[in-house]
Amino acid sequence: MPGENLTRDEARERAALLSVDGYEVALDLRSAVGDGGAEPRTFRSVTTIRFRCTEPGASSFADLIAPGVTSVVLNGKDLDPGEVFDGSRIALEDLAAENELTVDAQCAYSRTGEGMHRFVDPEDGEVYLYTQYEPADARRVYANFEQPDLKAPYRFEVRAPEGWTVWSNGAGELTDGVWRFAETKPISTYITCVVAGPYHYVTDHYERVLEDGTKLEIPLGAMCRKGLAPHFDAEDVFLVTKQGLDFFHDHFDYPYPFGKYDQAFVPEYNLGAMENPGLVTFREEYIFRGKVTQASYEARANVILHEMAHMWFGDLVTMEWWDDLWLKESFADFMGTFANVGATRFTDAWITFANRRKAWAYRADQLPSTHPVTADIRDLQDAKLNFDGITYAKGASVLKQLVAYVGQDAFLEGARRYFKRNAYGNTRLGDLLSVLAETSGRDMTVWARSWLQTAGVNSLTPQVLLDTESGRIAELAVLQEAPEAYPELRPHRVAVGLYRRTPEGALERYARVETDVEGPRTVVTELAGAQAPELVLVNDDDLTYCKVRFDETSLTTLREHLGALTDPLARALCWSALWNLTRDALLPARDFVGLVLRFAGRESDIGVLQMLHAWANSALVHYAAPGWRANGERLVAEGALRELRAAGPGSEQQLAWARFFAAVASAEADLALLKDLLDGTETVEGLAVDQELRWAFLEPLAAHGAADEAVLAAELARDDTASGKRHQVRCLAARPSAAVKAQAWAQVVESDALSNALVEATIAGFGLPSQRELTAPYAQKYFAAIERVWRERSIQIGMDVVRGLYPALQDRPETLEATDTWLGAHADAAPALRRLVLEARDDLARALRAQECDEAAAGR
Question: What is the mean pLDDT of residues 333-353?
């Protein structure tokens, strides 16, 4: 991996020297189906690049990662590939003012989801290809200048096996056995795309009359593997797509610029989705094989709209370098929810954002690797790791605060001017701030310095002083704190809500004030004289990005009456705040679990309920004192089963509680019930045990020795699909056997035979909470192996291994010491690798602090 890196300084130097006029890329993918012998390894890639050089006679380089290069021709001169190609770069000497470079290479099919990924469907043997490049893997498919600010138009042509269809960014047609695609607009390398294979393809169209009276027509397409076609609800995908196109045209005043709009749901995808203009790619798990809750449909709609927002934020206007990754990801993350609420049936999507997306941001912003939203990205490895909770969810939260700060109209007018001024170009932070300053009349530099250029999350706590005679509020203030490492106290536009119980017992808001919080203490003068509250909710309506704290009265109210809080967004914010208190070792894990068991059954928002299940499980696994853990697991399993039986037949709540019950089942009686539900000897009224739920029930059975290899083989025979194979691999690795763990470790760490999806599944089955003793011997093996894995494997697999196999379940001080020893002995290891280990260490240290807090609660 180090030889494949590209630094920011190198990119800036090359951008100052070169400009690109266009690419012609010819791929021959006919080898993809093989000839019945060994699995095909390579395909032919011929690329011609026309580019200019500001300093004739200067030297530079092109990027290419390939097993072999047949020829390199620069300005009509044949270069010796052995001399100019080192495996990742092609040296270019004595450049002219105008240049033409042609590279004929043998590029490799991928099994890691990077570059040209090749997938063989076990169900029918069909082969499917797709590309994934972000941030810098287009060079695995064709020679190029792999940096976002060297934009150019592209012409692709592809030879494919007979009977296949091929798609790319532009519209294509098959002539004389070759798929030829229309030239693209100027775009960056990382958003070019090719999808090829016998995909199931559905079409639709979108049209709109623009303000000038012209008609905009956009052909729509959606595709998936043939094996998933019976489950593909393309009509809902198209519905959300059309709603999104309407919404963005209404608000952006810039017509969709990339012609057609295809959406491909592809197998073994590393990401959620990728915004390739004209050909967006998604992980195929967004096609649901079984019953799911509306939260899953909402999440899919959010991703569809997130990627669509990128057509403007990221594709039309692109950041100059990955420092300003937020210019596309933060905006797309914000716009995904903004459009979901404004255009689709998911009008409560801000609740999901407050509860789920922000939880990701709060965790990332408290890691030792936290960084400003506008990050310092030194190289491509930094860039890969910065697709994180800061860049996405914190950035989106900051933009929500920005909208409250400047006003929605000024924000959207700024976006419109930004598109028109920078179309098909590259920008930095200042380019956006300047238009927002114009439209809002506010000085954006102070705001940007506080919110975009500093790290860390503030905590806001209400302080209530009551008048002793009247019992009303004498003074209400908001206290702001910052972590010692990041002491910035930011300006916050917040709503402060006051809540009391009604005579009927409902906990409802009776007063709300929107105010600016600045400095360590802000008095909310408008609330003086108000009736004494039982609950004060700082950041009501979730306008800003902060950790919400409670005064003692408010916390006591939530302990007793959280389920009576009628507003779903306020309830979600309280749950999020309680979870942050648990993670910060300020609320014992057993108390949080108790609140979930007491009040989660009354939760109306299904997405919040599923998040609570995940948090409760994490509290048990990581934050509960080891001595209480078994008791907690019993209480949670009993509670989950109780709620499962009480839920409405066929309801989403019933399905969510069934999945949670399976996740926490360990007692013999609970496992027997799961087995009976699988066999059909026992039923729960309204609960359909479809194939996906069957696998969810089988995993705990396998993990506790109640489902052996023969049972799992029989289930795979029942579900002999790619999805079934992933489930089976995870369950096989979950079995409670030292030999099983040794085999799983060898398959992931010592071999590169597994695809990225099966590596992920094996890791998931390897490290289960109930098997701490079985995996204990691998703690030292982990530290002995990770530097080699990072050096030898692709960065995606390296990340999966380093994150997924860290011995977090060995939650003892000795594991922290082993981590510190490795860090001390590997000060010169790749910075990205050290970052991953530091993050894992921080999570473990947090867990140990939370366990101490929970242990202290045992004596209450």
Answer: 96
Whether 841 contacts 817, CB under 8 Å: no
Q: Could you tell me which residues come within 8 angstroms of residue 609 by beta carbon, excluding any fewer than 6 positions away?
A: 600, 603, 653, 656
Q: What distance in Å separates the CA atoms of residue 619 and residue 548, rounded to the nearest whole number?
A: 19
- Predicted confidence band of residue 860 (pLDDT cuts 50, 70, 90): low
CA 854 to chain centre: 31
Which pTM was predicted?
0.95
Cα(445)–Cα(629) distance, rounded to whole angstroms? 49
> Which one, of 65, 87, 69, lies nearest residue 141 by Cα?
65
Whether 79 and 118 have beta carbons less than 8 Å apart is answered as no
Residue bearing tokens 């280990």: 837
Quick one: tokens of 230? 């019976």
Q: Are 132 and 114 in contact (CB under 8 A)?
A: yes
Distance in angstroms (rounded) separating the CA atoms of residues 428 and 318: 9
Question: 665-688 pLDDT, tens per residue?
Answer: 999 999 999 999 999 999 999 999
Residue for token pair 């839920």: 647
For residues 41-61, give the mean pLDDT: 97
Of the CA atoms within 13 Å of residue 404, those in its CB half-sphere come to 22
Q: Would you state the structure tokens that stand for residue 472, as one six-digit string?
A: 């009303």
Rounded Cα distance between 604 and 484, Å, is 38
Query: Residues near 423 by Cβ (< 8 Å), separated by ≥ 6?
Result: 254, 257, 316, 317
Active site residues: 307
463 forms bridges with which residues in the sheet?
477
Instruction: State residue 116 phi and psi, 5-degree precision.
Output: -95, 95
pLDDT, one tens digit per residue, over 409-448 is: 999 999 999 999 999 999 998 899 899 999 999 889 888 9
Task: Give the phi and the psi of residue 653 in degrees, each rounded to 5.
Answer: -60, -40
Token readout for 283 is 């992980």
What angle is formed at CA 334 by the lines to CA 453 and CA 270, rounded to 5 degrees? 90
Q: How far, in Å, are 363, 533, 557, 580, 582 from residue 548 at the CA level? A: 14, 17, 15, 8, 12
218: which strand partners? 206
Which amino acid is it at 646? A
E strand residue ranges, 560-663: none
Q: Are 408 and 415 in contact (CB under 8 A)?
A: no
List C-alpha distances in Å: 489 to 16, 283, 450, 451, 483: 38, 39, 8, 10, 10
Residue in this structure with the two tokens 């030829």, named with its chain if needed: 180
Say if residues 851 and 623 touch (Cβ distance below 8 Å): yes
* Peptide linkage before 135 cis (omega within 30 of 0): yes
Nearest one of 755, 692, 727, 724 to 227, comparing CA atoms? 724
CA 221 to chain CA centroid, Å, is 24
Contact 729, 268 (CB under 8 A): no
> Which DSSP state fits 743?
H
**Residue 731 near residue 761, CB atoms below 8 Å:** no
Give residue 40's identity as a one-letter amino acid code. P
**Contact by Cβ (8 Å): 763, 800:** yes
How is residue 151 written in tokens?
């934009």
| Alpha carbon separation from 513 to 416, 472, 497 (Å, rounded) | 31, 16, 7
